């Protein structure tokens, strides 16, 4: 039998706090098997330990532990939302705007800079996505990519490498995966 936390009142799912229950927003993520953007950024803001800045493994450790305590559904939902958010920043316009004066572009560097956009919060992320702010190519946070695999490995007492067999996101966060974002602009004069 599948566990769920809601009761139906007036045709809507309603969640209640209580002893032995996870926070209400975790209950909703668990039942829906998806994580809203707002909850993703809330979890990042609450769990990353910036007092350990300079040691990325220590910065992400509380996040890894937090996700692991709630199981596969929460880990997978986090992974899916992270991939989607990184995918949305994977555009030629954002890449071009982030290149320095020398015009140097690194596919890995662009991915790691997109990760830094996530850990800097929802407002910062959305300003970059909307073109109101330049993605800083000098800020990287690669460690974020490994959080779901580390949480899953911690939960199951196995290796990080085994995670790739447990879950695959619906979109890829790798640079150039967002084909629409890298599509050449149509040339109306060429018709």
Give the strand line-up of the largest sheet.
Answer: 1-2
Largest β sheet strand count, sense and barrel closure? 2 strands, antiparallel
- Output the number of helix runs: 9
Give the mean pLDDT: 90
The structural class is mainly alpha
List segments where confidence is low: pLDDT < 50 over at least 5 consecutive residues: 187-191
Radius of gyration: 19 Å
Report the sheet-strand fraction.
Answer: under 5%
Helix content: 40-55%
How far apart the termini lie comes to 59 Å
The count of β-strands is 2
Based on Cα principal axes, name the global outline: globular
SSE string, helices as H and strands as E: EEHHHHHHHHH
Structure description:
The structure is a single chain. With 191 residues, the protein is mainly alpha-helical. 50% of the residues lie in helices and 3% in strands. The protein has helices at 24-32, 37-47, 56-70, 72-89, 92-98, 107-119, 122-129, 147-156, 163-166, and strands at 7-9, 12-14. The chain has a two-stranded antiparallel ribbon with strand order 1-2. Strand 1 and strand 2 (12-14) form a beta hairpin. Helix 4 runs antiparallel to helix 8 (147-156).
